Amino acid sequence: MKKLILASAVMLAMTACDSSTSANGGSGKSVNGFSCNVTRTDNSVTLSETYTEGSYKQSQTVYQDQYGYDYSVWSTDIVFTDLEEAAEECADEKDEARKWLDGSYQVECTSNSVHVRQRDDSDRRDVEETAANFQAMCDDGYMRAQNGTLYEDD
Question: Phi and psi for 64 in degrees, rounded to 5?
């Protein structure tokens, strides 16, 4: 599952426009143990994926600072059924957080889950592209689940 999650994270890019729509990539649908959903509001977008080995949820929420500038907070929650995988992912994420000297990358772990919170300068316009990227991740996941390649090591 770790390689699958990392592949999902790599697919994510940021940038684009504001609208208040809701995308639902197969909500309620499960294919070979995989389900995926994208939800959207004016200032946020969330990807929720479930697998036979756990779940992955990532959100981008846009806020405005005291000077009127937008910034985003990215929140990622990964839940594992395999405690060893959770510990490995936790160690990897904590290693990544040490590289962010400004403290904008924070990691919290429990025995079977990893929570990452990151702040960046992406703005409200970026939410639409993030939503499109999340939907593409769902579509790809369903296609890979359908053809049996979702859980293969890449």
Answer: -120, 135
Q: What is the pLDDT of residues 26-58, one digit of tens each?
A: 456 899 999 999 999 999 999 999 999 999 999
Matching residue, tokens 């770790």: 2
Question: What's the length of the chain?
Answer: 154
Report the C-alpha gap between 55 and 39 in whole angstroms.
16
Residue-wise pLDDT tens digits, 1-22: 544 444 344 333 322 333 333 3
Alpha helices (runs of H) in the chain, residue ranges in sequence order: 2-11, 83-99, 126-147
Q: Phi and psi (nearest 5°) for 101?
A: -65, -20
DSSP letters spanning 54-82: EEEEEEEEEEE-TTS-EEEEEEEEEEESS
Give yes or no for a contact between 63 and 70, defined as CB atoms under 8 angstroms apart. Answer: yes
Q: What does the radius of gyration of the chain's CA atoms come to, in whole angstroms? A: 16
Which of left, alpha, beta for 68 (phi over 0: left; psi -120 to 50: alpha)?
Answer: left
pLDDT tens-place string over residues 104-149: 999 999 999 999 999 999 888 899 999 999 999 999 999 999 999 9
